Amino acid sequence: MPIQLEIVTPERLAFSDQVDSVVVPGAEGELGVLPHHAPLVSTLGVGELRIRKGGSEESFAIVGGFLQVRPDKVVVMAETADLAAEIDLERAEEARREAERTLEGGYEEGADLAAARAALQQALLRIRVAERRRREGRRG
């Protein structure tokens, strides 16, 4: 028996479907949710959200937010949620290089180092999720 999963960002509904299971990047580590999971509210970290449905798996690069598990539904409210298949690897690499340049410059007037670190973390996550999906796609 599947469970309804919704992944929501401030901009859009990123995903809505019945799934067999979902693994989310919790603030304290990965958290797996199957149908009939106990009700739960948790904060999300930065990482890969994996969805299993039938014999296939989909991944999202998730940055922050909250998870709510209810008897009938799992809701992921994330700051960002990028489907692995839709991640532009070249754009993510450029974002990584730009964040690294900002961090290397470090003491420039007006450089927001916290924002640059967050941008670097998000770019590295997108690259990791996209590359893992491409590797697994070639094997299958």
How would you explain this protein's 3D organization?
There is one protein chain. With 140 residues, the protein is of the alpha+beta class. It folds into two domains: 3-84, F0F1 ATP synthase delta/epsilon subunit, N-terminal (ATP Synthase, domain 1, Sandwich); 88-139, Single alpha-helices involved in coiled-coils or other helix-helix interfaces, CATH 1.20.5. The chain has two helices and seven strands, in the order E-E-E-E-E-E-E-H-H. It has a seven-stranded mixed sheet with strand order 2-1-7-6-5-3-4. Strand 5 and strand 6 (56-69) form a beta hairpin. Helix 1 (89-105) runs antiparallel to helix 2. It is globular and about 50 Å long.
Structure keywords:
2 domains; ATP Synthase, domain 1; seven-stranded mixed sheet; Single alpha-helices involved in coiled-coils or other helix-helix interfaces; alpha+beta; 31% helix; 2 helices; globular; 140 residues
Secondary-structure blueprint of this entry?
Blueprint: E1 3-8, E2 13-19, E3 21-26, E4 29-33, E5 40-53, E6 56-69, E7 73-83, H1 89-105, H2 113-139
Parallel strand pairs: 1-7
Antiparallel strand pairs: 1-2, 3-4, 3-5, 5-6, 6-7
What's this, in brief?
This protein is of the alpha+beta class and 140 residues long. Helix content is 31%, strand content 45%.
Structural class: alpha+beta
Poorly predicted runs are: none
Distance between the termini: 26 Å
Backbone shape: globular
**How many structurally independent domains?**
2
Class of the largest domain in CATH?
Mainly Beta
* Average of pLDDT: 87
> Beta fraction of the residues?
over 45%
CATH architecture call of the largest domain? Sandwich
Q: Gyration radius, to the nearest Å?
A: 16 Å
Query: What is the name of the CATH superfamily of the largest domain?
Result: F0F1 ATP synthase delta/epsilon subunit, N-terminal
The total of beta strands comes to 7
Percent helix range:
25-40%
Strand order of the largest sheet: 2-1-7-6-5-3-4
Q: What's the CATH topology name of the largest domain? A: ATP Synthase, domain 1
Number of continuous helical runs:
2
Q: Which oligomeric form is depicted?
A: single chain
Described by strand count, sense and barrel closure, the largest sheet is: 7 strands, mixed
